[in-house]
Fold:
Amino acid sequence: VQALFAAGGDDQQIRPSLDYFQAAQNEDGGWTYQKPSDFGEATDANSTSLVIQALQAAGESLESWGNPIDALVLFQDASGAFGFNAAMPDASLLATVQAIPALAGIDYTDMGTLDLSGASTEVNQDLLMLTLGIILGLIVVAVLIGRQRQSTEA
Structure:
């Protein structure tokens, strides 16, 4: 939907997707990856975030969709991170990264129009090193968790 809208798609091209979103919306106001699905249809933060962005790109009022932001924020934990779904509530980097623009009211069609002219071009070396350290730490933790799961399954 976001790509269609950015490419100048009209209502006739976008409407079938919005109709699908409406039919696939869960009772709690969020969305799952796919309906029907053999893997469950519980609302998840990733799908809900992307549909929110699609609705925003299409100019839809979130209130007319039952305010799906309410469903999304249920996955946020005390640290600010988002879990994937109710069955997997632990912090998920992907769910968090996808939730941020949806909560900020930014969709992918906005990316080329954001005004960054006032942004500083100076690089704070300490902040850069901290950020790189956090990213490296997340990668290490992900690898360790993956190895632990593999050894548990074996």
